[in-house]
Amino acid sequence: MVLEVAVKSAAGAPNLLGDCPFCQRVLLTLEEKKVPYKTHLINLSDKPEWYLAVNPEGKVPAVKFDDKWVLDSDVIVGILEEKYPEPSLVTPPEFANVGSKLFGPFVTFLKSKDPNDGSEQALLNELKALDEHLKAHGPYIAGEKVTAADLSLAPKLYHLDAVLGHFKKWTVPEDLTHLHNYKKLLFSRESFEKTKPAGVEYVIAGWAPKVNA
Predict the structure, then answer these.
(1) What is the Cβ-side half-sphere exposure of residue 130, based on CA atoms within 13 angstroms?
(2) C-alpha of 82 from chain center
(3) pLDDT for 178-193, tens place per residue?
(4) Is the dihedral of CA 80, 72, 96, 211 positive or negative?
(5) 36 in Cβ contact with 42 (< 8 Å)
(6) 23 is catalytic
(7) Buried b (16+ CB within 10 A) or exposed e, 56-70
């Protein structure tokens, strides 16, 4: 059975895959589990009538399970693990929250206009903690095998690289070698190549309104 998946289309290019990290997390999970699926690209600035009829909020990602559209990447990934247990992507409980606090400090630093507000250091603290964890337990969050925590983090790290590089001319410090190796491993996976946004320019375009707000 082919699952139907609604994901964000690219800003200004409605026929291309967009820049939503939560949508990519769902697609990565489907790819890693080898679950057949069909994508519906949803233009968030001009949502199709059929989609609003089945999902009045018009949010993405959404997956159709048993004739019902389910929202929220956390919920979707949980259902996929239940329905398609092989290969297991369950992150051991003691590692489940590794990297989970990264996104907030990243967005705060991205939007910051004050170089002395501590937002850069807050992000660096999270990145260093992740690097230390990978040094002790890597190459992935739970060791040798990719798990759900990695698939949640991979799109966020991709966005972090793209938008901080563009808007802040900022890059992850070179001495965080375990983190750099981790990113290379994630970004080179076949599942990531197949599900990443159509181009870095669409990631930048997607974030521009938030940066300039």
Answers:
(1) 31
(2) 21
(3) 999 999 999 999 999 9
(4) positive
(5) no
(6) no
(7) eeebbbbbbeeeeee
Q: At what angle do helices 148-167 and 103-111 cross, to 10 degrees?
A: 10
d(CA 144, CA 105): 28
DSSP percent split of the chain into helix, strand, coil, nearest 5: 50, 15, 35
Catalytic residue, chosen from 20, 62, 157, 179, is 20
Tell me the whole-structure pTM to 2 decimals. Answer: 0.97
Q: What is the pLDDT of residues 140-157, one digit of tens each?
A: 999 999 999 999 999 999
Between strands 37-42 and 3-10, the pairing is parallel
Sign of the alpha-carbon dihedral angle for 205, 48, 152, 13 = negative
Name the residue with tokens 């964890």: 133
Residue whose pair of structure tokens reads 């992740």 in the numeric block: 130
For residue 3 the two structure tokens come to 């699952």
Q: How many CA atoms lie within 13 A of 92 on its CB side?
A: 9
Would you state the torsion angle of the CA atoms of residues 73, 74, 77, 79, taken in this order, to the nearest 10 degrees?
Answer: -110
Per the DSSP assignment, residues forming a β-bridge with 65 are 68
